[in-house]
Amino acid sequence: MAQREIVNRTKSQANTVWLFDFLQKYWLLVVGIIVCYPLFKKWYAKFTQDAEEKALEDAEKDLKIAVSNPMTKEIELNKITPRKEVHNIAESLAVWLGTNKQTKDAPWYTWITEPFSNFENEKETINELLKVKQASTVPLVIGCYYVITRRDLKADLKKYLSTSDLKKAPLFN
User: Fold this and answer.
1) How many angstroms separate the CA atoms of 91 and 33, rounded?
2) How far apart are CA 113 and CA 93, in angstroms?
3) Rounded to whole angstroms, how far apart are CA atoms 18 and 118?
4) Pair 102, 51: CB distance under 8 Å
5) Alpha-carbon span 87 to 145, nearest angstrom
């Protein structure tokens, strides 16, 4: 039987070398975990997603494709309401809030390539909100805004406007 040579290490060497010994012995397992974990996680999430979430995700993809073309965007907006003034209000709100470029699926570098998406114009936004006179028009504007930006209008108003500005447009409070 071959004898193993006993290597005496100092305490500082023993504290640092154990990691290298472990990696030398189990490197394949470590690489396998690093590579396979994201794949297994994605696979598991795909198969555990229920039908309702899948339908919602498919509808979101369809809407994203439809809004990329001006003609299909108009068709999607007309499904909500045929009134052009509501379409114009929603489009203007998206521009004045800067969310026409900062959509849900915008790349991370949009704040660099579209600098005006970083700033909102409170005065013009309030003017657009005040164009809505009837409470029955509010859900239509919210729906059109969602089609254009795939974002929630009320959440964006709370995020980008101060409370004093929001009080000027009571229908959207």
Assistant:
1) 47
2) 20
3) 50
4) no
5) 8
Instruction: Express each pLDDT in 64-87 by its tens digit.
Output: 787 778 888 899 899 999 999 999
**Residue carrying structure tokens 């729906």:** 143
Tens digits of residue pLDDT in 93-143: 988 888 766 666 677 777 787 777 677 888 999 999 999 999 999 999 999
Q: Is the pTM of this model over 0.85?
A: no
Residue 161, by phi and psi: left (phi above 0), alpha (psi -120 to 50) or beta? beta
Number of C-beta neighbours around residue 137 at 10 A: 17
Is 140 in contact with 81 (CB distance < 8 Å)? yes
Q: Report how far apart, in Å, the C-alpha atoms of 107 and of each of 55, 65, 66, 81, 118 are.
A: 24, 16, 18, 30, 14
**Tokens at 146, concatenated:** 């969602």
For residues 91 and 100, the answer to whether their CB atoms sit within 8 Å is yes
Per the document, the length of the chain is 173
Cα–Cα distance measured from residue 12 to residue 10, given in angstroms and rounded to the nearest whole number: 6
Q: What does the alpha-carbon distance between residue 93 and residue 122 come to, in Å, rounded to a whole number? A: 10
116 DSSP 8-state letter: G
**Is the distance from CB of 72 to CB of 66 less than 8 angstroms?**
yes
